[in-house]
Amino acid sequence: MLDIFVSIIVAGLTTGALYALATVGLSLVWGSMGMLNMAHAAMLTLGGYVAFTASTSLGLPIGLGFLAAIVAGAVAGGLLYVLIVSNLLRHDKSTFESNVMIATVGIGIALENAILLTYGGQPLKQPLSVSGALVIGPVTLPYQNILIVAVVLVLMAIVALLLGKTRMGRAIRATAQNRDAAQLLGVAVNRVYFQVLVLSGALAGVCGVMVSSMTQLSPPLGNDPMLKAFIMCVVAGLGNLPGAITAAFGLALLEAFVQFVAGARWGFPSLLFVVIAVLIWRPSGLFGRAQIRRM
Amino acid sequence: MSVAAKPPVLSLTNVVSGYKELQVLKGISFDVGAGEFVTVVGPNGHGKTTLLRTISGLVPLRGGAIRVNGQLVSAKPHAIAALGVAHVPQGDLLFPEMSVLENLLMGAYLAPNRAEIDRRLDEVFTLLPKLSERRHQIASSLSGGERRMVGIGRGLMMGGQILLIDEPSLGLAPLIIEQIYGVIAELSRSGRTILLVEENPARVADLADKLHLLDDGAIVWSGPPADLLARDELLATYLGG
């Protein structure tokens, strides 16, 4: 019984780590820019394929393949800002949120199809994965799962330090909380937006490698994590970073338990049920901002 | 106090601005000299806040020119802040999820080094000791008066050459307003250059060197505060008595 319980926990934590990674990128952009990046899924897929190409066609070592995915995601995020977002912001800001959503849907579709044309539709094996497992008594912990959780925890810590302790992080948080005030204090918000999209793209690149190492590479690779990340964001409250990470791990564990108890087909519906319940009872999310205002 | 010989820190020449089709400011011109305390008074909705937002770049300039120390300002608020313009906006515009200390430190975003940040922080805590007590409190949990203090403190942390203060008394209890104006008076005595907008000229009667009366986006009268307060017909016409 213990081995089954631990297996469920390990599966839940691994999935939760992947969801958290996808969610942080999405939530960071929404929280600081009010931008729902619908191309996030394609950026995630791009990271997975770039790592694949770097390791197979170019024969680079695993570490460099991983780095290539990060760079590709970051470049994609940077280009998204330079080519699309900055131009949309330059015009009518009141329609930015809807315009950027439509624009990124198009970019996501175009990028996914470009990957399809380049690599074909057949699933490919991600070479950046480790085999074997750590066996402790009746409990088996696959190294790949341990690696994913460890990498995600390290990345979360780096993002937390970046946002909490650095000048750039303070500027990102300030812009997210009050754009006008940040500008008045000397923060160049356009540069902040660029930095946020680069950071989010880099995280998407890593996430693409991680997800494909657990499944397989295919052009729609990023769609499922993106959908789940969106669910986590809604449950946590859009733009709430710590809440999103908590929701990612919590819901992934719930999904794993439901799949074990009721069958795999009930995993995703259970998440949808939680989203609907949250939208009914707490429309601003479980961790939605609670403000005390006194006059 | 004689201020005539001092060069203007801020100079507005025929400034025009507004929102979409609405033209709010219709050719504003005046100077603010170094160490001077200038107040713009006027009824609500006649362009006082727009004036400060135009100077700090939040509202685009449509015509005329704004100079800080003789240098023409660009349209970017962060670049204008870098010229030494510290804007304490209406409604404070604090960062609600940051602590008081983090809000203050954001004020020093452009500060050259840590020593300068510490020096400014000491200065702010000396002037506003309550902020030191509340330094770890989240901004959204502060009272209206405390928020206003943080807004002023954050403006001071910018170390700017001129402080733009937008209606510091708005929505506050009389006792708190008195405290806030006490702080502003102390800032003025220490030689700070201040441009303040206010609805009630009596509040700045003892503080301001010069007062401009703004009506429908244009300056209709300028002079010492005592002169305006002695002109009942002006007060009745423009400020409702």
Automatic annotation (TrEMBL), chain A:
Q: Which residues cross the membrane?
A: 6-29, 41-60, 66-88, 100-121, 141-163, 192-217, 229-254, 266-284
GO MF, one term, reads: transmembrane transporter activity
Compartment list: Cell membrane
How does the UniProt record describe the way this protein sits in the membrane? Multi-pass membrane protein
Keyword Oxidoreductase listed? The answer is: no
Alphabetically list the UniProt keywords. Answer: Amino-acid transport, Cell membrane, Membrane, Transmembrane, Transmembrane helix, Transport
Q: Which GO terms describe its biological process?
A: amino acid transport
A GO cellular component annotated for this chain's UniProt record is: plasma membrane
Pfam hit, one: BPD_transp_2
Q: Which family does it belong to?
A: Belongs to the binding-protein-dependent transport system permease family. LivHM subfamily.
Enumerate the PANTHER family for this protein. AMINO ACID ABC TRANSPORTER PERMEASE PROTEIN, BRANCHED-CHAIN AMINO ACID TRANSPORT SYSTEM PERMEASE PROTEIN LIVH
This protein is called Branched-chain amino acid transport system permease protein
Annotated source species: Allorhizobium borbori
Automatic annotation (TrEMBL), chain B:
Q: Which UniProt keywords apply?
A: Amino-acid transport, ATP-binding, Nucleotide-binding, Transport
Asked if the Swiss-Prot or TrEMBL record annotates the protein with the keyword Secreted, the reply is no
Q: Name one Pfam family in it.
A: ABC_tran
Q: Which GO terms describe its molecular function?
A: ATP binding; ATP hydrolysis activity; branched-chain amino acid transmembrane transporter activity
Q: Which PROSITE patterns match?
A: ABC_TRANSPORTER_1 (PS00211), ABC_TRANSPORTER_2 (PS50893)
Per the record, the domain of life is Bacteria
Q: Which GO terms describe its biological process?
A: L-amino acid transport
Query: Which stretch is the leader sequence?
Result: none
InterPro entries in the cross-refs: AAA+_ATPase (IPR003593), ABC_transporter-like_ATP-bd (IPR003439), ABC_transporter-like_CS (IPR017871), BCAA_Transport_ATP-bd_LivF (IPR052156), P-loop_NTPase (IPR027417)
The ABC transporter domain sits at: 10-241
So what family is this one in?
Belongs to the ABC transporter superfamily.
Question: Would you tell me the protein name for this molecule?
Answer: Branched-chain amino acid transport system ATP-binding protein
Q: Which organism is it from?
A: Allorhizobium borbori
